[in-house]
Amino acid sequence: MTKHVYTFGGDRNEGNASMRNLLGGKGCNLAEMAGLGIPVPPGFTVTTDVCTLYNQAGKQLPADVVEQIKEALKWLEGNQGRTLGNAEKPLLLSVRSGARDSMPGMMDTVLNLGLNDATVEGLAKASNNPRFAYDSYRRFIMMYSDVVLDVHKDHFEEKIEELKHKTGKKLDTEITAEEWKQLCGEFKAIVKAKLGRDFPQDPWEQLLGGIRAVFNSWDTERAIIYRRMNKIPDEWGTAVNVQTMVFGNMGDDCGTGVAFTRDPGTGEPYFYGEYLINAQGEDVVAGIRTPQPITKYQAADSGLKSLEEVMPDVYKELYDTCQKLEKHFKNMQDLEFTIQQGRLYMLQTRNGKRTALAGIRIALDMVKEGMIDEQEGLKRLNADDLTQLLAPIFDAKEKAAFKKAGKMMAKGLPAGPGAAVGLIALSAEEAVALAEKEESLDPSKRKGVVLVRIETSPEDLAGMVAAKGILTARGGMTSHAAVVARGMGKPCVCGASSLVIDVAKRTVSVGDIVLKAGEDFISIDGSAGEIYAGKLSAFPSEVNQVLVEKTLKPEASETFQRFAQIMEWSNKYRALKVRTNADTPHDAAVARAFGAQGIGLCRTEHMFFEDERIPAVREFILAKDEEARKAAVIKLLPYQRKDFEGIFTAMNGLPVTVRLLDPPLHEFVPHDEKGQAEMAKVLGVTIEEVKHRVEKLHEFNPMMGHRGCRLGITYPELIRMQMRAIAEAAINVSKQGVKAMPEVMVPLIGTVKELKFTKDQMLDEIAAVNKENGTDFMCPIGTMIEIPRAAITADKVAEEAEFFSFGTNDLTQMGFGYSRDDSGSFLPEYVSKKILEDDPFQSLDQEGIGELVRIACEKGRKTRPDIKLGVCGEHGGDPRSVKFFHRTGLAYVSCSPYRVPVAILAAAQAVLEEKK
Amino acid sequence: MTKHVYTFGGDRNEGNASMRNLLGGKGCNLAEMAGLGIPVPPGFTVTTDVCTLYNQAGKQLPADVVEQIKEALKWLEGNQGRTLGNAEKPLLLSVRSGARDSMPGMMDTVLNLGLNDATVEGLAKASNNPRFAYDSYRRFIMMYSDVVLDVHKDHFEEKIEELKHKTGKKLDTEITAEEWKQLCGEFKAIVKAKLGRDFPQDPWEQLLGGIRAVFNSWDTERAIIYRRMNKIPDEWGTAVNVQTMVFGNMGDDCGTGVAFTRDPGTGEPYFYGEYLINAQGEDVVAGIRTPQPITKYQAADSGLKSLEEVMPDVYKELYDTCQKLEKHFKNMQDLEFTIQQGRLYMLQTRNGKRTALAGIRIALDMVKEGMIDEQEGLKRLNADDLTQLLAPIFDAKEKAAFKKAGKMMAKGLPAGPGAAVGLIALSAEEAVALAEKEESLDPSKRKGVVLVRIETSPEDLAGMVAAKGILTARGGMTSHAAVVARGMGKPCVCGASSLVIDVAKRTVSVGDIVLKAGEDFISIDGSAGEIYAGKLSAFPSEVNQVLVEKTLKPEASETFQRFAQIMEWSNKYRALKVRTNADTPHDAAVARAFGAQGIGLCRTEHMFFEDERIPAVREFILAKDEEARKAAVIKLLPYQRKDFEGIFTAMNGLPVTVRLLDPPLHEFVPHDEKGQAEMAKVLGVTIEEVKHRVEKLHEFNPMMGHRGCRLGITYPELIRMQMRAIAEAAINVSKQGVKAMPEVMVPLIGTVKELKFTKDQMLDEIAAVNKENGTDFMCPIGTMIEIPRAAITADKVAEEAEFFSFGTNDLTQMGFGYSRDDSGSFLPEYVSKKILEDDPFQSLDQEGIGELVRIACEKGRKTRPDIKLGVCGEHGGDPRSVKFFHRTGLAYVSCSPYRVPVAILAAAQAVLEEKK
């Protein structure tokens, strides 16, 4: 017979902390505490498996479960010397949910169960406190009706309000025993009126009803939404904890509270918590009375009375218990306790939730204190949290004041962490103009610019560079704006759809708040996705101040020291190398400061957009034959060479993987009349010629059109120019003692012959450069694997490729057949309908796209055992994906500069998780 | 030591027909003929391997090859009793190329080699014909200079013209020995002037030069282009045949000619050929003199003198030899012969090229004659050729007359075989209107309509249905127009880019030819890709007349009998079933008549476009909530149900695989102002609403956007309506005794959860229908495999899918990352640069996309061993792809109705090719 019910406390403690999956977090920890000799009111846990059985059986408790509950109850009655429903010595119970992972506030609880018209009298007598007894009874009727009988608690609240109104009383505490008793009668009448039957007086029926209600609450909409948000599988189910009631509301020697072994907001190692005298737990939550601080330290000069002062002995016992529990669980604990007539009972302990910054501090402190070792410390960290250490920040108090003043305009997606403030620019040109105007000013006097667009495109690049932050009304976490902003380490809020951007009136508005472009400030918090009207104060992170700006000494910043510690430990364990995606010397330098071990993706297309270059690009596009194309493209050579010289110098001694031109040509031509007229003028052709060419460049599905290596196959002069720029740059900087280590990769390969053709052109150009310079420059030539066919035929591709770099963004697009730019119309629904667990553009789809990666690695190695395998693109900075890449045996991941530390930590965690 | 040179003829015949790869087609057959005792001038063959060695060695003949040539020459001199360069008894040679597969006219030949200033005198004496000798010498100098020395033959032709002008002579035959001799001198002077050295007098040097020249000619541009067109690998190389010269130009008892054992144009079993008295082979080719027919039958009443009459004995020997060779090779032979002083020499025999229709007839005749068995007969056929038996046809003579009269306007791609004539319609509406106007007329008086568009889109569908044929100025073999036209079995010419379509002026023009829409006729030959101004006479194929129109009895058509014979044999051997892609009862019936064993792809989107339906579709698209959408979509139910009733009835007893709605919704809304205004009016909304919605539907990459199963997941009411229509239709027709066998497939699945979600909706709707009707309808539910991720995770997908149907079109798009609509900008170049062997949309890419198919089959079977596997889409009608699908173990292919016979034959050939 399967065991469905486990007792805890008293003389029969059947569980422990290792049984979390079966008993839930609360249940297993109650048993664990009892095992440690900590005062826990005894009770029993109905397992999470029963939740599944219950639902499978059409919301019915199986008979053997009911039997086991009965048996456990009998033990509990014996242990307590009280009996459920006994009018003299009634046993009173709490019924609480308890899933594997805590889901605070999501599920239902019933307290004071076992009370009825008879036992309430017994309780009054036993406690010698009829007011307490009837207060407890009315609470029970309210809770039970609300949770189990589906009679909303508002009906009861009304009655209490009526009574107060009639009697002129304000507080619950003023209500007398008699009045409570009368209310109990009215409450029962409400239930009878609503349901046509009496409020259940049979405590056994009450108990089963309570247990069923908790199981039902697993499937409420709010619980489902919470699980989806927190990636908790539906199959886990919740356990139900039935526990002897203890009362914090029996008088002034009673109380209830919550405590944290450390500050969950900052991570500071101070005991921390709140309590109320003469109250039940729900009173703390309801917020009617202001809770008091637990410690004197907390209370400080507030004038509030701490538990430490009010009940020094109880406080001492609580403090010791909490310390014991933290040491036992080796983690910051979040505890609930009740004091009944001067006696302390622990009702719950669990690992406390904490902010990102607190999480980092606590893990590191515990290592320092010797509570956990550094490996455990690393495992405790959430790699994503590291971005918070790097992002510029708003002052929290100022933000709160803005919110209060109604100056928070809207929320969007937190697409690029950090804080940005500036004047509103509605176009890239405006952003550039505003920024340029400020360049002559003293930095302290600059106002900054925030680029606000419906959505961004590559043409907005200059504006994004000029802006402090980017805000869009459309687009998701992987829209152009989001990807580019994260790549630049700029704060970005995307998809703020309630924002009205009126380009004609030059305003950005939400409701009454109307901001004028070029005049008004806007502040965006890319970590929270919040948009504020007006100017908040923003500061660069301390890590940036130390590493990039060098305005702060390492030892002057605790935050930086923690960051450095995490990096040091991570570097000790990780196997994966971490490179960065960067295409300017500045980005390269930032990433290097953050620990990047090379550039994994140096895009070259951004280099084509700058003002002095774009005319040559457009001349190339308009050229009628190869000769004219060659003449145009060669004008780009000096610029491109200079770009590479800067990057090679910044990455002196580290590899730089350059990707040949990738986007379709139509991205380089203007699509508006005005731009086309300008282009015609600059190039000395008719506007019709320009229009005609732009039209010819139009594609139905540009993502799958004439781009990537396909460009270079049609226009070999293009890749020859790029290869020449790389080779000449490497040769030039090496004369200044710089060790340039370019690796060149060909994008969008589908078949080895594309690579062969392109490589032949490149090798030929390298040979020409070497001949002209009397040098022997050479570099590895490899390919992106981003087309499913390339992955499937990777054995063939490896015949020519010296390395693979997985372009998992495009591989996801092609592998799923999802256009990233268009997926907004169905992907969110896919995630909400659980067709996909995650947005596959944010976290790699390991089952499908990951399988393509795995196949490609295996086939690639078969042909070329020492082939270097890496990944570039957004997934290289996603911790879950990074761990997958580690397990798949890649040599490196590459991600945007501000995610380099995230990837470094995730890479170390991957190793540590494997050990386990 | 590797043997590089093989002698043939005389007393040392070292080769035979089985050595084609090594000796080339010509060489091995010369040896084979010699072995059969047929008179062949002796000689030797330098192998194809030497071609490769020659090229690897930087265009050098390896020393051992030269040694072996020397040795073979010595044997030949002995055999002939003549010596190369001997002034008394000179040995004269021809040097000819000879690849594995004949490449007619592509490579170089040198005749009369061995002549020089001394040997020409010997030849004059020996032949007692100085004119012949000097004529031969001047020919040799011309040819050798042109081919080996790179001095163009025009320089020499000029001199002959000068001489004729000076002497007033018109024909070569009038030129005297002395004049030829004088010209030889001038020719040599030209060479000396051009090259700065004498024309080579050393016959050995001449011989090596000739051999080298033939090897060089393997790499000329025209040869490379020819190989690419005919898919001949570069590595094959050519052999060189050095052969004793025989002369057809020594007098009137000499001659030369070509013969076919059967008529290569019609396949009729009559000996057929042409010859010239007193001529060398090049004279026949040059076309200066009109060749004479070989047989009396050919000569008929032409007044021409046949060889049969002029040289009855030689004719008899030639006839017997040819018959012997056809019987020996068991194939129609194409032969070259020379008659020297009354003696017949065979210079070449090979399998003759023939037209599609001749090929079919010859293969069937040979089976009837017992020369080959039916399996060999089937293998001989080119499956693609069968479409020619099904397509409507123009009268060949009339076409020729049009061409002569300059009425051929342009050439485009032969995108849908057959002939179509009609008035020009420039829009779908116009085509429908013109066709409707004609409906009341007697069929003989109808003019028909040809739809002429820049390109077509789904909105043109009604026009395509109304038209007899489709002509577009843009788009390739797999453009929308081409795919739909082939699906409908309509003639189609695509991508006729020289066509100027002026919608404003309502004209279609090329140069001077200007046709008025609605008034002028246009004729298109979709088999040849030709476009004619005016009205050609078109006839339906005899097969159609028998099977579809039933206006002709089977026994009255030889063509039909051949078709039926091929189908009968094919059905005997094939394992693959062949279904059709059809979405109307008419197409279904046609395909069934052609042998289709069910419908493999019944698209449902076309059913949404018809006039009375599209308003409901658009109402659905505009609807603001689910209720409104449900109300709109249910209006489509009666139509959709009726569609299915018709199709199920037409396919009574055969499976019909229905695909749920696939295209993105924007295909169903008008994109022009006028259409949007109309739509707004019909639906009673503002035009702004329409515009806004259309804008919202815009996608950057619609191919990878909101379509396929993604639609049904967002709008389950859509698939529920479709499933209901299918179920109700099946139930309805079964009451009339029709056995409906629907199978429903979900398009664009990437993950099993998409299928699960959709299937749940479908099963639920089926249950509802059954409950309403008291029925127990059920049908298999499966999925398209057309997304790479679905192929890779097919084991998971098969948990829900009862069958897979490979959508290889989209699988190719996503697998390669090629947008079919945009690939015109690079795919042709890819094929010409040999990066791809073929357009992967025409013939399946077996290495990459085929590997995805293979993986999916393997994984699908692992989960569900009896899973039914099929393929739908264009590749199902491509013979090479069909054979691949057979080898991969699919159960069926599905293709457009007019390709069903092609697939049937290819399926049989696949089996027969496996046996070998």
Automatic annotation (TrEMBL), chains A, B:
PANTHER family, per database record: PHOSPHOENOLPYRUVATE DIKINASE-RELATED, PYRUVATE, PHOSPHATE DIKINASE 1, CHLOROPLASTIC
Domain PEP-utilising enzyme mobile residue range list: 447-529
Binding site for Mg(2+): 786, 810
Active-site residues from the entry: 480 (tele-phosphohistidine intermediate), 872 (proton donor)
Catalyzed reactions per annotation: pyruvate + phosphate + ATP = phosphoenolpyruvate + AMP + diphosphate + H(+)
Keyword vocabulary terms for this entry: ATP-binding, Kinase, Magnesium, Metal-binding, Nucleotide-binding, Pyruvate, Transferase
Database matches in SUPFAM superfamilies: Glutathione synthetase ATP-binding domain-like, Phosphoenolpyruvate/pyruvate domain, Phosphohistidine domain
Similarity comment text for this entry: Belongs to the PEP-utilizing enzyme family.
Cofactor list: Mg(2+)
Binding locations of substrate: 603, 659, 786, 807-810
Protein EC: 2.7.9.1
Class of enzymatic activity (EC top level): transferase
Species: Mesoterricola sediminis
Keyword Nucleotide-binding: yes
Name of this chain's protein: Pyruvate, phosphate dikinase
